[in-house]
Write the structure tokens for this entry.
Amino acid sequence: MAVHIVGSINLDIITSLDHLPLPGETVIAKATARLPGGKGANQAVAAARMGAKTRMVGAVGDDDAGRWMRDRLARDGIAVSGVVALEGAETGTAYIAVDAEGENQIIVVSGANARLTPPGPVMEGVLLAQLEVPVGALLPVFRNSQCIRILNAAPAVLAADALLDHVDVLVVNQTELAAFACCGPVEGLPAVVREARGLLRHPDQAVVVTLGARGSVAVKGNREFHVPAVPVVPVDTVGAGDSFCGALAALLDEGRSLEEALPWASAAAALCTLGQGAAPSMPMRAAVADLLSGAATEHAPPIKNRAGVSLG
């Protein structure tokens, strides 16, 4: 049917430095790049490249950056009729400094993202949202939609607890899991499963926790299953989580079960880390299918057991 993304749209301005500046220090950058970004836009690109009919709902400014972002999304075949240009607003912008060791400093100006108003409900396919837009804009669409509703609760905005009753699949990383569970760092699979199960609000709900190099774990009802990560030699891990979520939404939209969809999401996230930048590195479906079928890439070995999901 379709994947409907409600979320942020940013222009990422990335500078490469030998070292990050100290307070008051001026550092000369080696290079700069302007890339499409924002978790919503990234996930829309990921879903579209996995073959899903994809619609983006968000807000940009009535400025050059907003027009550039709409054009970049449309180039990936994403429907952008739901992307509004707000008069007098600036398009969201992330200023990212990356040093020679891969450490970074990020300043985000939300701009038009902070002024997104509630869209209409989604009555078919998959709804996917994140928390870089106001919770107040998401609550009506999650409450009233009749579809598969996925929330990637990133960043961990605790006001989003109000959404959890209306979510079918909640996706968090370990840091976000700890924030919503109101506990300290969550280490080890048993603890991850325990805290994830504590977030379940209704019997048909699932919680998926991404674990980086350890893959992901999902809980649903009294079941749990772990999907190992695809071993890769990463170049840039920015955007891997967004690739995971977009691919997951695309596979669920075509009728796959959660157990069937998670290995695809893990493979897509792994391939995303082999390129620079977030949206530009989202893999095409054919590359993910090749990896799952056993064809190796330059930096990623084949998956020998594509059904390697351990059921609890």
